[in-house]
Write a structure and sequence with these properties.
By secondary structure, the protein is mostly helical. The protein has one domain. It contains four helices and two strands, in the order H-H-E-E-H-H. A two-stranded antiparallel sheet has the order 1-2. The longest helix has 19 residues. 18% of the residues are buried. The structure holds protoporphyrin IX containing FE.
């Protein structure tokens, strides 16, 4: 579409800087909408490194299990649709767009590059 810039180009790989920008951006929007920070003790809401993100967990699910295809990771399932009684994340929205979740999935499947 004219005037619309989509990133990244399909030939570029997604790096941590981009994934962090997507996650911190959607959390900033959530905090603006709710007028508060997320409650402590559920899981983190910001992640300084790929390892912090992968090792975060909630309800017994680690966000990213090594070797598991991205679409089966708790992180991607939570962002796309949620599991059972646990709603899609961030809870209540706003949500990442499907193509943005695709970028995060691509990053996981390419080995979570810095
Ligand atoms: C394994 C993945 C995840 C699981 C299992 C999970 C689980 C949960 C649960 C159980 C809650 C509390 C629900 C309630 O209060 O009824 C919650 C809240 C929340 N989660 Fe997640 N979550 C996951 C990933 C994420 C991610 C990746 C984000 C952000 C991008 C996120 C953002 C939030 C927010 C903003 C809340 C609301 C906190 C509040 O009300 O203070 N979650 N999550």
């Amino acid at each position: 579409m004219e005037g619309v810039v989509t990133r990244p180009m399909s030939s570029q790989s997604v790096n941590w800087t981009r994934v962090n920008e997507l996650l911190s951006g959607i959390m900033a929007r959530w905090e603006r909408k709710e007028g508060r920070k997320g409650l402590p003790g559920i899981h983190s809401y910001e992640w300084a490194t790929p390892r912090d993100l992968a090792n975060d967990q909630s309800m017994g699910s680690k966000f990213i299990e090594p070797g598991l295809p991205a679409e089966e990771t708790a992180l991607i399932v939570s962002l796309r649709k949620g599991f059972g009684s646990i709603p899609r994340m961030p809870m209540g929205g706003p949500f990442l767009k499907p193509h943005e979740i695709d970028e995060i999935a691509q990053w996981i499947d390419s080995g979570m590059p810095e």
